[in-house]
């Protein structure tokens, strides 16, 4: 069904009624949030990128025209539209235009390739995809056209052409998607607003249905906690489709507060520092490897004036304590650790927490209504202060993935708690330290790799009889991936380069290509039988 209602697992009615009564779910929509800010601050700068600066009035006019153009293309309310754009102003216009017509953005990443996009298009039954023709030398229009040929619902490719060029044949030029303003369909705040992606642990991508009510609460609460105001200039440094720069407090926080969104085309210190200087950026979010690059660059000395930076957030993967202590002094900003997930729960260290807490913990849940449990393998609570698996539920944590009963059975308890897959410890002050991870999800500097997904692709290689993908420790990324391989023909084992090229040709994002490949004669004995991948991964990780 590419149109019609978007089903999802709702919160129990009693909880939903509480959230509404307490105003936690405010009953507004993304489009109304934008319209309110436009009405309040039409001349304030809304969006700055490498070559554009738009006021809120400019942004609103573009959103209006684009929204009308999308309707004219036949895109209807409740249909899904994939967005695979780099960090540029059109990203913001596109997302808000989709909100304006009550269509659902599907937040793809520029690094996604054919395997991911095809699976996402099929799972979401998307009717259109928005891309920029070339980005970092890659032809996204060709990729989108290929995906569109493979997925019947996906009939329209909208393309931002390269500078000075036309959009390629078979695509609709982004600039032509414009129409006269009209009555737009109103969205229902309690319905799904978009589909976010899970950094999951399974072979197929999991789509995360987020409602206006729940997500806007997380954005507004993040704003309060992070001190976001109309003076905030939030820079999206990570790919903006990620949940972190989207919402914690991210670009949506900036719009809700009437502040400014800055978008840097590259996270590298030289480019990003220049953007900080130009847009007087006050806040941004980084993953630990990037925080290290920036810290080292600033420690060596930069010619750019980055003194406007007030808050630097680090999240997505565990930030080493040693690095955490250096970030604030080097960048001249307050560090905030963020431990969040696209499924919901976001924890922050508070801006006025003592350094000891900020530098060594990943903070505490942002809402007093977030509930967490730390449990053992039988879902029994562990003693206070000891390590265990983190479960959570609350006003902005989903109760189920989109159209995925298998994943739901695995990732949620019978009474609706989300199994985060993280191993944590909670100190007496309620601050969480992330100690480990779900065995099958590798965290490569904030980019999540599903061992199962990569294994499935590798098993298609004719020279591979069996394979187990595990995390290996890495000083820079925290973790890297290693594929332990059994050769189909022991006299002719596959070469690392061949395997990496094979995975790339299968259409997987670059961050999922195994960093290391090791051919083994046999997998280690685990003592629990050959079928336990979990034990096998443990034994191979230990090597
Ligand atoms: C250790 N592990 C962390 C941290 C996330 C804000 C910030 C990050 C994300 C994100 C997000 C971590 N230390 N500080 O959505 O809104 C790991 C955990 C978690 C998984 C979620 C946000 N911060 N992690 O990273 O959906 O394992 O969201 O369960 O991509 O990242 O990944 P993702």
Automatic annotation (TrEMBL):
Xref: SUPFAM superfamilies: Acetyl-CoA synthetase-like
InterPro entries attached to this UniProt entry: AMP-bd_C, AMP-bd_C_sf, AMP-binding_CS, AMP-dep_synth/lig_dom, ATP-dep_AMP-bd_enzyme
Domain AMP-binding enzyme C-terminal positions: 453-530
Domain AMP-dependent synthetase/ligase: 35-402
Pfam family, one: AMP-binding_C
Domain of life: Bacteria
Name the record gives this protein: (2,3-dihydroxybenzoyl)adenylate synthase
The species this protein was found in: Rhodococcus gannanensis
């Amino acid at each position: 069904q590419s149109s019609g209602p978007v089903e999802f697992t709702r919160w129990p009615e009693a909880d939903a009624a509480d959230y509404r009564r307490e105003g936690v779910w405010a009953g507004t929509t993304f489009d109304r949030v934008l319209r309110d800010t436009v009405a309040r601050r039409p001349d304030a700068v809304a969006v700055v990128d490498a070559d554009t600066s738009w006021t809120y009035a400019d942004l609103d006019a573009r959103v209006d025209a684009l929204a009308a153009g999308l309707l004219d293309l036949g895109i209807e309310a409740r249909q899904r539209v994939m967005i695979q754009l780099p960090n540029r102003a059109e990203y913001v216009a596109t997302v808000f235009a989709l909100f304006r017509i009550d269509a659902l953005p599907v937040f793809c990443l520029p690094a996604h390739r054919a395997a991911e996009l095809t699976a996402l298009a099929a799972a979401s039954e998307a009717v259109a995809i928005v891309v920029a023709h070339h980005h970092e030398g890659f032809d996204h229009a060709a990729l989108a056209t290929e995906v569109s040929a493979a997925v019947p619902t996906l009939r329209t490719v909208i393309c931002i052409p390269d500078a000075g060029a036309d959009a390629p044949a078979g695509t609709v030029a982004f600039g032509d998607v414009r129409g006269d303003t009209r009555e737009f369909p109103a969205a229902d705040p309690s319905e799904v607003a978009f589909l976010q992606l899970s950094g999951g642990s399974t072979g197929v991508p999991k789509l995360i249905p987020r409602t206006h009510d729940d997500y806007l609460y997380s954005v507004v609460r993040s704003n309060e906690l992070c001190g976001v105001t109309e003076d905030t200039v939030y820079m999206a440094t990570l790919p903006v489709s990620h949940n972190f720069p989207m919402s914690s407090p991210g670009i949506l926080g900036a719009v809700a507060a009437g502040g400014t969104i800055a978008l840097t085309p590259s996270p590298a210190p030289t480019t990003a520092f220049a953007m900080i200087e130009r847009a007087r950026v006050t806040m941004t979010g980084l993953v630990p490897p990037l925080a290290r690059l920036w810290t080292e660059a600033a420690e060596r000395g930069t010619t750019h004036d980055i003194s406007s930076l007030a808050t630097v957030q680090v999240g997505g993967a565990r930030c080493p304590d040693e690095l955490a202590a250096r970030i604030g002094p080097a960048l001249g900003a307050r560090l905030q650790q963020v431990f969040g997930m696209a499924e919901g729960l976001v924890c922050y260290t508070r801006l006025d927490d003592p350094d000891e807490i900020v530098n060594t913990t990943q903070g505490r849940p942002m809402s007093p209504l977030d509930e967490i449990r730390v449990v053992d393998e039988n879902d029994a609570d562990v003693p206070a202060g000891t390590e265990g698996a983190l479960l959570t539920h609350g006003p902005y944590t989903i109760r189920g993935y989109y159209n995925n009963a298998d994943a739901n059975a695995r990732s949620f308890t019978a009474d609706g708690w989300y199994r985060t897959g993280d191993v944590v410890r909670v100190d007496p002050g309620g601050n969480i330290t992330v100690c480990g991870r779900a065995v099958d999800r590798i965290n490569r500097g904030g980019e999540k790799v599903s061992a199962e997904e990569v294994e499935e692709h590798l098993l298609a290689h004719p020279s591979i009889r069996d394979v187990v993908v595990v995390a290996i420790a890495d000083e820079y990324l925290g973790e890297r991936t290693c594929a332990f391989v059994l050769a189909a023909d022991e006299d002719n084992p596959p070469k690392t380069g061949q395997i990496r090229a094979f995975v790339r040709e299968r259409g997987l994002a670059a961050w999922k290509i195994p960093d290391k490949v090791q051919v083994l004669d046999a997998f280690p004995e685990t003592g629990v039988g050959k079928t336990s991948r979990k034990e096998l991964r443990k034994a191979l990780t230990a090597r």
